[in-house]
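FAQ: What does the model actually see?

It sees only this:
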Amino acid sequence: MKKFFQIFRPLCCTAMLALLSACGILDFEVDDELQNITAEMRLNYDTIYVERGDTMLLRPVFKPDTLKIKDVLVRSSNPAVVSVNSLSGLITAVGTGWCKIYVESVFARLQDSCMVCVVTPFVPSQETYPYETVYYADVTLGGQPLTEDMVVGAFVGSECRGVGEAMNFFGVSLVQMRVGAGRQVDNPSLPEGGDPYDPDDDPDEPDVFREQIIFRCYDRRSHRLYTRMPPEAFDGQTHGTLSNLFKISF
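And it is asked to produce this:
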């Protein structure tokens, strides 16, 4: 009987903790006096960014690695943003925003957590805009060219309006980005219909509402998000040439 209990005790603990987690009873508060195991557990990330709709596996790393029982339970602080498989550690980004993922070792009662930010996918809006700004850009991250795991996008608010496309023209590597924005509006506050901030503005032409374009870079391998500030004002023009590329640095 004693040998039977030793073998099946971890499984019983797993089932019990899963039941408590499902019922919302498990709050990951552990009595320090009960922790007699000199072991450590750390997740492979402490803060990550993922695109809505993506899945990834959070992997706990144990020290010492010789710890025999490595079963864990995983819980999300906001299932509307990130849902989890409580036993496998697979997380699914279902909404946008922040949440915290809690992980606890079933046997050793070791704990760690990870902040997760779910971002809008880098997919251009399907809406058709009457104006377009085009960028022929030299895009770098930390002074280095982007890798195939990285994507750069142009956002207005939380909406993606354009995604960079890597190109090579006559030996010149660049990123082309077409950004849809700007609706024709009448602005009676401008004198004679002109734009006082644009000396070349034709007062007979309709004014364009100048939305603010924010460039973001997402690294799918490291799950990091970078934002270039300040934003660019949409002007409906083309920026950059093969001999003088527009600079976008993160």
